[in-house]
Design goal:
The structure holds 2 protein chains of 2 kinds. By secondary structure, chain A is mainly β. Chain A contains no helices and 12 strands. Chain A has strands at about 5, 10-15, 20, 25, 30-40, 45-50, 60, 65-70, 75-80, 90-95, 100-105, 110-114. In chain A, a hairpin with a 2-residue loop joins β7 (about 60) and β8. Chain A starts with a strand and ends with a strand. By secondary structure, chain B is an all-beta fold. Chain B is built from no helices and 11 strands. Chain B has strands spanning about 5, 10-15, 20-25, 30-35, 45-50, 55, 65, 75-80, 85-95, 105, 110-114. In chain B, the strands form 2 sheets. In chain B, strands 2, 4, 5, 6, 9, 10 and 11 form a 7-stranded mixed sheet that branches. A 4-stranded antiparallel sheet of chain B has the order 1-3-8-7, with no helix packed on it. The radius of gyration of chain B is 13 Å and the shape is globular. Chain B starts with a strand and ends with a strand. The chains are: A mainly beta, B mainly beta. Chains A and B meet through β5, β6, β10 and β11 of A and β4, β5, β9 and β10 of B.
Chain lengths: ~110, ~110
């Protein structure tokens, strides 16, 4: 069965520190998609990134970067030079079976202190 | 475009009462989903629909029913509410993009069952 694990329940950092959020997934499919979503204190879910199982290239978007490693079934998310506005709960998610199975991890609550 | 909207935003029910949550999307998406979010558990899929007139069970379907009579609407019903159904409910819709199914989320409905 598919599963997403985010072992870090809560992380606190001081502004300008770098922080990495871990995501480990399990799936039997060879075709699947991985996502990261951000949920700020206001409660909405904000899409950050999508990655398919055939593309292991790392991606960088501003202060955000993602490291996808199929060998370890991990899709980790790094925020460089964190800011207070990065404080949120971050969810990793896995989609397989052409979008009919969507599983979210339990989330990591990130607090960035000024 | 309004995106994904949910009605109502808040609701308090007494045990045994019934209600229907409405999700509407104006993006012509084929897939729609209902999730519940509980502290420390991320989002769990209740039911989903891959097209008008079709529905399927997710991870936690018990106590809920759904209907998709129109492509743009996905209704979630609670026939006899229980305190265990106190949660935040999110609706999402998705489309096929390069074989991915990126989800767009509504703002959520906070339901309390007393």
């Amino acid at each position: 069965a598919q599963k997403v694990t985010q072992a870090q329940t809560e992380i606190s950092v001081v502004e300008k520190e770098d922080v990495t959020l871990d995501c480990v997934y399990e799936t039997r499919d060879t075709t699947y998609y991985l996502f990261w979503y951000k949920q700020p204190p206001s409660g909405e879910l904000v899409f950050l990134i999508r990655r398919n199982s055939f593309d292991e290239q790392n991606e960088i978007s501003g202060r955000y970067s993602w490291n996808f490693q199929k060998s370890t079934s991990s899709f980790n998310f790094t925020i460089t030079a964190s800011q207070v506005v990065d404080s949120a709960v971050y969810f990793c998610a896995l989609s397989e079976n052409e979008g009919q199975n969507f599983v979210f991890g339990p989330g990591t609550r990130l607090s960035v202190l000024p | 475009n309004a995106g994904v909207t949910q009605t109502p935003k808040f609701r308090v029910l007494k045990t045994g009462q019934s209600m229907t949550l409405l999700c509407a999307q104006d993006m012509n998406h084929e897939y729609m989903y209902w999730y519940r979010q509980d502290p420390g558990m991320g989002l769990r899929l209740i039911h989903y629909s891959v097209g008008e007139g079709t529905t399927a069970k997710g991870e936690v379907p018990d106590g809920y029913n759904v209907s998709r009579l129109k492509k743009q609407n996905f209704l979630l019903g609670l026939e006899s509410a229980a305190p265990s159904q106190t949660s935040v409910y999110f609706c999402a819709s998705s489309y096929l993009w390069e074989s991915s199914y990126e989800q767009y989320f509504g703002p959520g409905t906070r339901l309390t069952v007393t």
